[in-house]
Structure formats: structure tokens, C-alpha cells
Design a protein that fits this description.
Residues 204-280 form the PDZ domain. By secondary structure, the chain is mainly β. It has helices at residues 8-24, 185-198, 233-237, 256-261, and strands spanning 28-33, 36-44, 47-51, 61-64, 70-79, 84-89, 109-116, 119-131, 134-135, 141-142, 145-149, 160-162, 168-174, 180-184, 204-205, 208-214, 221-228, 244-248, 251-252, 271-278, 281-288, 290-291. The longest helix is centred in the N-terminal third of the chain and has 17 residues, at 8-24.
């Protein structure tokens, strides 16, 4: 029996989506780390990108390649601020995923692919949000804000997101309230390269424990120094416990969390002018930002 003409396009779409999954599945892996199951993908031969949040803090890591072969893996590096982690494993001839820096527009179709016991896990949805670069709550620089409207299984976190052309534009992770967020390919390429070489991503460090306070004079927000690392940049610059930070390079402190998120990789080695109130007097201290231990 021949399908009605108006159903043929749906059959073509179905076949196309199935083809996209089949073409990408060989690059997808399932990850098992200390009672946590998630997904990942081949970034380079022997290197697997996964979601840092889905990687246990301890225990062995096992990777199941497409087809069911299991291999042990070692953590090569992880960056909680961008939710990117890198594993090393013997992947033999498994193909690496081809990532695209293209950012799909709102309303575009999106297909996600994860792994489970050597088989693919797929879901279909729409791009709900497609916006500019942003910083995560932990200070990571994310190249684009992409959220998907679809149901993602827990085991599929760390898998790939594809557009309707089959281009892999990023890795799927869970955000607040289990929203599905995509870490874009551009961010993965930048962070994974640093993890491959250094095992970490450098972050700025002040060596100061800060507590937000209200400034008496104008009602603005400052930060009181509650503790000072004796070997940290703050101590070397002459910052004392009890000092109140009023401004950073001439700008009001505002939220302490915003200040701390500004301590990204590019901040290491920079010198900033801190306006500090001490004993009723205001002074300026130049502080060179260090690298977080």
C-alpha cells in the first residue's frame, strides 16, 4: 500500500534523521565512572571529551565504544567552569567527531546523540535559545548560549548535539532545573586543547577571602577581606585582613561573584589597581593576579 502523498515528506525526514544518528554514532561512547553513567565523544584519536559534571571525583573510569567494546580510561584534565573534561583511552580506529563552530538559530531542529552500552541514544527537539557568549556561574567563558527544548536522558549527558545538516555544534549538558544546555564546539576546542597540554585551564587567583558589605558613604557594595593567603598575590601586594575593597581598576566592586568570575585564563599575570579603605583612609594597591593553585 502506497503512503498518502502528504506523508511522504515525513518519511523522508524520518529517514534523514535516522541517517544522521547512524553516521555520528561511531564517534559516541558511553562512560561509567564510580556509579555514574554518562556519554562522551571522540575528540581526537585516544582522547574523549565528556561533561565534567557527569564525571565522578574518584574511582576507575570505563568507556564503552560503539559496538560494545569496553576500555579503561584515565582523566587527562577537567575544567569545572566550562563543564568540559578530557579522558585518555585506547580507542583504536574509532572515528573522531567533526565539530562545527556554526551556532544554530532559535527554532532550528536539533538532534542529540548519547551512548548506552555501545548503542546510540537519540532525541529530537528545537533550539530554544541561541545567544551571545556568556560566563557560567563558576566563571567559565562559553562562546554562545544555546539551550535545547527536548527530553535528554541522564545517560546521554556529554553526548553531541547536531543540526539538521548533521553538523555537531556542541556537547549537551544539564543546566539549572535540568534545562539542556549546549557547550559550543568553539569552547570545547579551546578548553580541550589546554587540558590535553596542561591537564587544566589556568584561572586567576587573588589569595583573598572576600565578604560583600555595604559601603557607608554611598550605599554601594564593597568587599571586606576576611582572610589572606600568606603566599598569595594579595599578601605580596600588601592587602591586609580587614581591608575593604571599594573599586577594581576604577570600577565599583559590585557583586563579589561577578569579580571572581572575571578571574578567567586571560586575567593571569595582569596587574589591577585596587582601591582599598583601611583605618578610615583610602589607598590604592597594585596587585598582580596569580594562577589558582
Amino acid at each position: 500500500m502506497t503512503a498518502p502523498p502528504d506523508l511522504v515528506p515525513l518519511a523522508a525526514l524520518s529517514a534523514s534523521l535516522s541517517g544522521l544518528v547512524a553516521a555520528t554514532a561511531p564517534s559516541i561512547v558511553a562512560v561509567h565512572s564510580h556509579r555514574v553513567r554518562s556519554s562522551g565523544f571522540l575528540w581526537k584519536p585516544g582522547l574523549i571529551v565528556i561533561a565534567d559534571e557527569a564525571l565522578a571525583e574518584e574511582g576507575d573510569v570505563t568507556v564503552t565504544l560503539a559496538g560494545g567494546r569496553q576500555v579503561s580510561a584515565k582523566v587527562a584534565g577537567r575544567d569545572p567552569t566550562t563543564d568540559v573534561a578530557l579522558l585518555r583511552a585506547e580507542t583504536s580506529d574509532a572515528p573522531a567527531a567533526a565539530l562545527s563552530d556554526a551556532v544554530p538559530p532559535v527554532g532550528a531542529l536539533a538532534v542529540t546523540i548519547g551512548g548506552r552500552d555501545g548503542e546510540a541514544l537519540a532525541a529530537l527537539g528545537l533550539v530554544a535559545t541561541s545567544g551571545p557568549a556568556w560566563r557560567s556561574m563558576r566563571g567559565g567563558e562559553i562562546a554562545a548560549r544555546i539551550e535545547l527544548e527536548l527530553s535528554l536522558r541522564r545517560q546521554a549527558e556529554g553526548g553531541l548535539a547536531l543540526d539538521a545538516s548533521g553538523r555537531a555544534f556542541g556537547m549537551t549538558v544539564f543546566g539549572p532545573r535540568r534545562r539542556v544546555i549546549v557547550i559550543p564546539a568553539a569552547t570545547i576546542a579551546r578548553v580541550a586543547a589546554q587540558l590535553e597540554t596542561h591537564g587544566k585551564v589556568a584561572r586567576g587567583y587573588l589569595g583573598l577571602g572576600l565578604q560583600p558589605i555595604r559601603l557607608d558613604r554611598d550605599g554601594g557594595v564593597g568587599a571586606m577581606v576576611m582572610s589572606v593567603d600568606a603566599d598569595g598575590p594579595g599578601a605580596k601586594a600588601g592587602v591586609h585582613q580587614g581591608d575593604v575593597l571599594q573599586a577594581w581598576d576604577g570600577q565599583p566592586i559590585g557583586l563579589v561573584s561577578t569579580l571572581l568570575r572575571a578571574l578567567g585564563p586571560t586575567s593571569v599575570g595582569k596587574t589591577v589597581a585596587l582601591s582599598i579603605r583601611r583605618g578610615g583612609e583610602t589607598r590604592t594597591i597594585n596587585l598582580e593576579i596569580g594562577e589558582r593553585p
